[in-house]
Task: inverse folding
């Protein structure tokens, strides 16, 4: 396969991968998504291969709740047994989506085992390829690779380079972008925020969070894609441990000239990392809020003024997250919406399934709990490539 180029109209430039000869151009690829609830047509589902528990870094210490089994865990490759089981869950999830006619792509496996060294930092290993939602931000017809604020996730975008290249070559309107790369040097963090391997109590982290004092400083432009919630023309970004104010300013300056409006949100959460187990859009006019993480004062107004209903999520089915999991039990509300009436919910979350049923959704149970430790729930484990629908103005 080849393509001619405007600059060299007579040349025929190869478009196959050098190693395998597999062409970059695929038929019927369309990149476009403006929210989390319009009909899903194409999605990326993560893989668990080669995942590591990286050594603690200044950004990650603070993000692990005091009662989490991750606290104090040793760095190193996760067991093959846990990787296989997580892949079984992720493959099952991918199959469920494919059976409903959704195109599913999987990222490439990278060996994260090597030490990562840049002029500014060095860490024992990478993290993994889970969860795609943290790294990739689909904004309309473009996909942006986020800066990432964990040192172990600095090179995570490598797992997506081939796929993104395919989208770029296959859809003439698709643009692939990279946010500014942070340095993540010792200057980027309050290095004395948590002395390594020493933990802050939940009371202390909550007090600091309410004062908006995080381990990440404003030295770098930092955000993870999963702190961004897209609702058509309005983009809501959570300020917290993974996204700083410089990151939000960058998102504003990048997308507001394109017609988007960018808002900052903060929640009473002692570990504000990634918005998708805290405040989740379900369909136009309906939000699901974590009852333990109220919005800061005044921040409900934009929703209420525009007649959006905010319902509180029911309690999770579990008292504790699974072993070696970074997230809280609130992954119960981390679901994948397939369209305005259909939602995938983790299969053991019976209360959450019932709540969706009452809200008028068809609920598809998905076995995913054994993949939680690899970075999150059903929303985290995916990244949008294409949802039907256009960029609506819900908050004019
Ligand atoms: N901070 C959330 C919690 O523990 C987890 C969010 C995970 N989301 C993600 N995109 N990785 O409740």
Result:
């Amino acid at each position: 396969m080849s393509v001619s180029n405007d600059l060299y109209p007579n040349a025929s430039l190869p478009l196959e991968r050098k190693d395998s000869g597999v062409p970059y151009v695929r038929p019927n690829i369309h990149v476009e998504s403006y929210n989390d609830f319009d009909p899903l047509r194409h999605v990326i589902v993560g893989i668990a291969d080669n995942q590591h528990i990286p050594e603690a870094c200044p950004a990650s210490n603070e993000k692990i709740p005091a009662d989490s089994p991750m606290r104090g865990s040793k760095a190193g490759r996760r067991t093959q047994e846990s990787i296989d089981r997580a892949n079984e869950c992720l493959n099952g999830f991918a199959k469920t989506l494919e059976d409903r006619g959704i195109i599913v792509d999987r990222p490439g496996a990278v060996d994260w085992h090597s030490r990562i060294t840049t002029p500014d930092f060095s860490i024992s290993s990478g993290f993994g390829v889970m969860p795609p939602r943290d790294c990739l931000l689909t904004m309309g017809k473009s996909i942006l690779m986020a800066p990432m604020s964990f040192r172990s996730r600095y090179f995570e975008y490598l797992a997506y380079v081939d796929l993104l290249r395919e989208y770029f070559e296959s859809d003439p309107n698709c643009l692939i972008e990279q946010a500014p790369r942070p340095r993540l040097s010792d200057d980027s963090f309050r290095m004395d925020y948590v002395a390594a391997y020493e933990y802050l109590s939940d009371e202390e982290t909550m007090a600091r969070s309410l004062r908006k004092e995080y381990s990440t400083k404003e030295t770098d432009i930092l955000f993870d894609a999963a702190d961004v919630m897209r609702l058509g023309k309005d983009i809501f970004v959570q300020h917290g441990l993974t996204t700083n104010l410089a990151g939000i300013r960058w998102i504003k300056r990048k997308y507001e000239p394109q017609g988007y409006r960018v808002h900052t949100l903060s929640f009473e959460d002692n570990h504000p990392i990634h918005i998708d187990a805290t405040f989740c859009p379900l369909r136009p006019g309906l939000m699901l809020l974590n009852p333990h993480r109220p919005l800061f004062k005044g921040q409900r107004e934009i929703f209420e003024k525009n007649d959006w209903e905010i319902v509180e999520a029911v309690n999770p089915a579990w008292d504790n997250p699974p072993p070696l999991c970074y997230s809280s039990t609130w992954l119960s509300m981390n679901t994948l919406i397939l369209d305005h009436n259909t939602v995938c919910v983790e299969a053991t979350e019976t209360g959450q399934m019932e709540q969706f049923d009452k809200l008028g959704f068809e609920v598809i149970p998905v076995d995913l709990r054994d993949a939680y430790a690899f970075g999150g729930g059903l929303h985290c484990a995916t990244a949008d490539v294409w949802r039907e629908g256009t960029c609506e103005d819900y908050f004019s």
Observations:
- The chain has eight helices and 21 strands.
- The chain has a mean pLDDT of 91.
- Residues 131, 133-134, 226, 271, 273-274, 276-277, 327-328, 330, 375-376, 380 surround arginine (CB under 6 Å).
